[in-house]
Amino acid sequence: MHEFGAAKNVIDELLKTKPKKATIMLGQMISKKETFYEILKEHLIETELKDIKLDIIEVPVIAKCSCGFEGHIDIPTHVHFVRCPLCNNIAEVLNGDKIEIKDLIY
């Protein structure tokens, strides 16, 4: 499961510094917010970070295509690439394809 691997990477990073609170910027191409949160909480409970406060912000997918389209693309589920809504070609993803840990509070 892709979400599990992404969640494990986040947990590994958080365990390095052990914050009390963290903001996770979650690209929609990685996972849906609710699914990712449940996986994180399920696995954090087994660590010293079981009481961490998480703020997960879903980052929308923004893509650019050679046909001239540039903008938001709705992603119903985890995907590896996006298609242009105008011409159906594979578009370049500009935003929404990464996970970033921000605003750590100790």
Compute the gyration radius: what is it? 16 Å
Q: Tell me the overall shape.
A: elongated
CATH architecture descriptor text: 2-Layer Sandwich
Total count of domains: 1
Q: What is the CATH topology assignment?
A: hypothetical protein PF0899 fold
Order of SSEs, N→C? Answer: HEHEEEEEE
Q: How many angstroms separate the termini?
A: 31 Å
Strand order of the largest sheet: 4-3-6-5
How would you state the average pLDDT, rounded? 92
Number of discrete helical segments: 2
Name the CATH class: Alpha Beta
Number of strands: 7
- Assess the beta-strand content as a share of residues: 25-35%
Topology (SSEs and partners):
Elements: H1 2-17, E1 21-27, H2 33-44, E2 53-59, E3 61-64, E4 70-73, E5 82-83, E6 90-95, E7 99-105
Parallel strand pairs: 1-2
Antiparallel strand pairs: 1-7, 3-4, 3-6, 5-6
Structure description:
The chain has 106 residues and is an alpha+beta fold. The chain has one domain (2-105): hypothetical protein PF0899 fold (2-Layer Sandwich). Helices cover 26% and strands 35% of the residues. The protein has helices at 2-17, 33-44, and strands at residues 21-27, 53-59, 61-64, 70-73, 82-83, 90-95, 99-105. A hairpin with a 5-residue loop joins strand 3 and strand 4. Helix 1 (2-17) packs across helix 2 (33-44). It starts with a helix and ends with a strand. 21% of the residues are buried. The model has no long low-confidence stretch (mean pLDDT 92).
